[in-house]
């Protein structure tokens, strides 16, 4: 979900990163409101190896407001389509539910669909989510994002209807009425895929919802879940690493009280411009930790940033080891004391350790000489609006179990910020009213079918997803070592066995849905 | 569905009836557009015996637009509630999905729910449909019905969301979170009940959708279905009756060419004011036949009008018999010739026969001295707007199999009329895109559960409903002698065995859903 826009485009060896001052509000009132880093929303690194995929780019005229009947404008919805492998008239249609970002980027990062489509004789379609990428109403992003009255139609139900209308039209145009549609999606796109299967069973026969935190609403899961999982991801590598991070916030806060201290922080963390407050630094660090947990893949990847395999392991290794200049004695001393709330010599050492660690995330290639904060380089603030309207996901960080600064979710101040920033009042019950969530195992035990909720337990979003089978055909695939929708990514030579197996299971389940569909088709039409 | 507003309030022995000039367009372009008589939308006769039911009337503030996030007005949704029999905290909630009319009238005409609620220890709730009765936005019906921009929020999806929000709120207020909700509805209300179960499985555990023509859209059923069923209802009583009616249109048309002829028609049919055209008469007759088919109950009833049991039988008896003045020889002659396209002596006799027949419908008590046409006495044109936007139900009458004037559905002229009358362009695919309908047996064979589609085959709306089981728990209850949602009505001493059995089956199925729910509840929460 587009809370953070990362770009790793190298500009004169300066890495521009998004300012993350909106991520975690710590123990004082949030400057803005809490946002939650879905890496799927991040811009891909342009240096990242591109998948060799082929598609046509098309546009479909969509109604801006599907739920009222007075005249509303249309807007062009972009979609990518590939029919090369499609068994004309009978092969399935694989539809990726575009989420909060450029659809080309999602297509590039969902290699799984492209890899399995030929085996299935499937058409592949990637429709873009309204208000993102090139699918913006009112002629321009500027106009579309002007205020709540133009942004008002940016929501999940309108987006699902877009998909429904588009598929219905495609089926007609391609004489594909009898073709089963299978939905795919990761992160917010996974939520859309699951919800679409539930709301439009006549349009799609099943959904693979990868890392889809459909339960991250209201009081369904404890608000500490997300940051606890991030924290545990560090703790399981090294409790000293966890403790260094946990202790670092106070050091940062205390240093940041003076201009000299800010200068020191700026220098220690290699920012190109002097920090104006500690908040930017805090958010920068918190983003790194959260994203690291999400992309804690077992092999080297370049999803958000070029990273080694098991990046948290490497981050912790460096934090624990400390900068090259740390004396052996100091390290030994720290090793002994790390569990006794030791803050390092005058607080300097701990910050250098932290820098060494997050440098893995922000600068693994070592090409950056300094870091620049950039608020929202691509103007993709769409998710902010969604978070301020229906995607209200309460999150706290626990003083006890989290390595983040303690924070208790405060709905009132969240609401105030949304009113201030967008002129909208959030509707925190909207999602659970429309799509459910409370007691989902009860509601769907005898209702619905053909949904896979796949989750890796390293992914902090897994805590808000479905981690137990609901019924025979609404199932949960959990991998202990998986991170954020790793299953949707293209296969690599380094895929561990469990990932190969997970994907095989998914293929088998999807095959089951499809053959079941064809069989039922025969039964029904022979009736 | 509110196409006709009937009132049988006696005013100086003049029965005011709705002008039905909008019903059937015959072989020339419709004056307005085709509307379809759902009797459920008719105003109840005030002289009709009232059920002895008790409830509190309350209002709930609903958001006018649930699907956009800029500021929209609220409106008061009326609902009737009875908790006398409710087993506090655990008993089920029986929710009637209010349709296009005053909710008090639906409560009065849905005796079934009131009768079974005590046995179930159920709370009973009748929420009113937005834009009907007292649940109008913008402060007044006049404002709400002003134009497409104020009417734009009158649609099924907004209405379902209203129900969802209301139930969620009631559950909280009554500490009824664990209480299963069972939906009921007849006609359009039945469609809403079925759709609500499909879209909001987390809110309701099952739905009894009585006489719900959810398939009366696009090309799912042949457009001739409705009028064919009406016609067959007459034919099965008497083929001569069917033929008299079929022949009457030409006679009416030819008489109506002159002012004297219109005078004669006015006199023959006892209108208080002189007819201005034959169209009013035609629509008046067509309405009568269609409504007669719908309320062709096996016992005397006063649903729309005071009627004898098997009213079509009585209508045909009178049509066949002819007016008291008809000579025996003439009757014998007609009896012999009726199948040979005999039009009666100079066309007079056939009209008198028709009058005798429809008099059963419009004036069974014999109290009316003349009939008055009244366009829309209660200003309830809401259904017209719904029919012009999403409830687009194509209907034709076949030259061959129907007794009605032949008419071929013409979408273009329908669309033109809607543009002219409401400034809206219909969206004929809206309902099938949102709720499905095509291949419903395929789509729902392995999806969803706990829906009863109950239909009586005498009801012309049965042709657009689900008449075969879809799965083990999405079932169809068909009664050969049933008419429009007879099962939802209060029981009477004259109920035939099949009706008693039908209701018992429904109760048993609902009991099954509820005990299944409690069982699953236990399983899920013991997990």
TrEMBL record, chains A, B:
Secretion signal, residue range per the UniProt entry: 1-25
GO molecular function: dipeptidyl-peptidase activity; serine-type carboxypeptidase activity
Class of enzymatic activity (EC top level): hydrolase
SUPFAM superfamilies documented for this protein: alpha/beta-Hydrolases
InterPro entries cross-referenced by the UniProt entry: AB_hydrolase_fold, Peptidase_S28, Ser_carbopepase_S28_SKS
EC nos: 3.4.16.2
Nucleotide-binding keyword on record: no
UniProt entry keywords in alphabetical sequence: Carboxypeptidase, Glycoprotein, Hydrolase, Protease, Signal
GO annotation (BP), single: proteolysis
Domain of life: Eukaryota
Protein family per UniProt: Belongs to the peptidase S28 family.
Protein name: Putative lysosomal Pro-Xaa carboxypeptidase
Taxon lineage: Eukaryota, Viridiplantae, Streptophyta, Embryophyta, Tracheophyta
Gene encoding the protein: 25493542
């Amino acid at each position: 979900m587009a809370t953070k826009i990362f770009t790793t485009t190298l500009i004169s060896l300066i890495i521009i990163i998004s300012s993350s001052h909106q991520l975690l509000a710590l123990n004082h009132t949030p400057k803005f409101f809490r946002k939650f880093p879905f890496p799927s929303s991040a811009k891909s690194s342009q240096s990242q190896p591109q998948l060799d995929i082929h598609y046509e780019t098309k546009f479909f005229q969509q109604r801006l407001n599907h739920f009222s009947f007075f005249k509303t404008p249309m807007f062009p919805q972009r979609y990518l389509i590939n029919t090369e492998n499609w068994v004309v008239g009978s092969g399935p249609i694989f539809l990726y539910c575009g989420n909060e970002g450029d659809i080309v980027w999602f297509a590039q990062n969902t290699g799984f669909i492209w890899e399995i489509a030929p085996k299935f004789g499937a058409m592949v379609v990637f429709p873009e989510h309204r208000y993102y990428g090139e699918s913006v109403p009112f002629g321009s992003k500027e106009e579309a994002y002007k205020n709540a009255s133009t942004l008002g139609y940016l929501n999940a139900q309108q987006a699902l209807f877009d998909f429904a209308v588009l598929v219905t039209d495609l089926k007609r145009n391609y004489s594909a009425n009898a073709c089963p549609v299978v939905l795919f999606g990761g992160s917010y796109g996974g939520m859309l895929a699951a919800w679409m299967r539930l709301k439009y069973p006549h349009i799609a026969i099943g959904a693979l919802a990868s890392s889809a935190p459909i339960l991250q609403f209201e009081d369904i899961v404890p608000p500490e879940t997300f940051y606890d999982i991030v924290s545990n991801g560090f703790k399981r590598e090294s409790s000293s690493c966890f403790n260094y991070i946990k202790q670092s916030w106070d050091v940062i806060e205390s240093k940041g009280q003076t201009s000299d201290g800010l200068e020191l922080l700026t220098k220690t963390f290699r920012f190109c411009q002097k920090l104006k407050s500690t908040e930017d630094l805090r958010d920068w660090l918190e983003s790194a930790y959260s994203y690291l947990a999400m992309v804690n893949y077992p092999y080297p990847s370049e999803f958000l940033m070029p990273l080694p395999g098991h990046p948290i392991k490497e981050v912790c290794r460096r934090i624990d080891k400390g900068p090259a200049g740390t004396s052996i004695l100091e390290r030994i001393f720290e090793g002994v004391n790390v569990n006794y709330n030791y803050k390092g010599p005058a607080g300097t050492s701990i910050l250098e350790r932290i820098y060494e660690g997050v440098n893995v995330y922000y600068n693994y290639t070592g090409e950056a000489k300094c870091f620049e904060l950039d608020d929202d380089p691509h103007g993709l603030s769409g998710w902010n609006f969604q978070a301020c309207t229906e995607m209200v996901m309460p999150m706290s960080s626990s003083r006890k179990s989290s390595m983040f600064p303690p924070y208790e979710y405060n709905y009132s101040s969240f609401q105030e910020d949304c009113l201030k920033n967008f002129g909208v009042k959030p509707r925190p019950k909207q999602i659970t009213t429309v799509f459910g969530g409370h007691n989902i195992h009860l509601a769907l035990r005898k209702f619905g079918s053909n949904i896979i909720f796949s989750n890796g337990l390293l992914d902090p979003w897994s805590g808000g997803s479905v981690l137990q089978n609901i019924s025979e055909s609404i199932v949960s695939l959990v991998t202990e070592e998986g991170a954020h929708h790793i299953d949707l990514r293209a296969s690599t030579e380094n895929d561990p066995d469990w990932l190969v197996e997970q994907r095989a299971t998914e293929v088998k389940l999807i095959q089951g849905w499809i053959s079941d569909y064809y069989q039922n088709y025969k039964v029904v039409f022979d009736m």
